[in-house]
Design goal:
single chain, 2 domains, 8-stranded mixed sheet, globular, Formyl_transf_N_sf
Length: about 200
């Protein structure tokens, strides 16, 4: 049975684009059946449409969390999705929604969890004077950024780094890690391109 994947975004969808590319190249088993955004103007929607993938918008602004999540769940069901990837989806989901998708929803976070949960993680890393940072793909659970870890990618933190330069370095690692981690979760053989300065690991 082919796994039907939905990708949830809020912005330009750079991680979404790498997942689409990897799936089209046969590196990720399954079919991407929906890209959904909580913002009508999200740049990733245009990219998904160009790739021929169905899109949907369920606006979060002006709605209660329950109303918003009901709309998201309806869209997922109508698309036939059975696995969800959060890719820059800037909404905290309720426990009820997360439990419904237990073991079938991934997120990518731009730090080496359990370090630096939540927002402003690059500022936190620089302030803490850590030698390395990176990103983590994990299953989503009711605990914020606390679900079981699928894989991590490590990059150096340089003395001259700003939050923006560190974010750009971590994002390159995200684009390698997320497709490989998703492939592993769906029973495929993870593939990634080796790049200098990025250490990747799947659990």
């Amino acid at each position: 049975m082919t796994t039907k994947i939905a990708i949830l975004i809020s912005g330009r969808g750079s991680n979404m684009a790498t997942i689409i590319e990897a799936q089209r190249a046969g590196k990720i088993p399954g079919e991407i059946v929906l890209v959904l955004s909580n913002k009508d103007g999200a740049g990733g929607l245009a990219l998904a449409k160009q790739a021929g993938i169905p899109t949907a918008v369920v606006a979060s602004k002006g709605k209660s969390r329950a109303e918003f999540e009901k709309g998201v769940q309806t869209a997922l069901e109508e698309a036939g999705a059975d696995f969800v990837c959060l890719a820059g989806f800037m909404r905290v989901l309720s426990e009820d929604f997360v439990v419904r998708w237990n073991g079938r929803m991934l997120n990518i976070h731009p730090s080496l969890l359990p370090l630096f949960r939540g927002l402003h993680v690059h500022e936190q890393a620089i302030e803490a004077k850590v030698a390395v940072s990176g990103c983590t793909v994990h299953y989503v659970t009711p605990e914020l950024d606390g679900g079981p870890i699928v894989g991590q990618a490590v990059v150096p933190v340089k003395a001259e780094d700003t939050p923006d330069t560190l974010a750009a370095r971590v994002q390159k690692a995200e684009h390698l890690l997320y497709p490989a981690a998703l492939a592993k979760c769906l029973g495929g053989e993870p593939e990634w391109d080796v790049q200098p300065g990025i250490l990747l690991s799947l659990r």
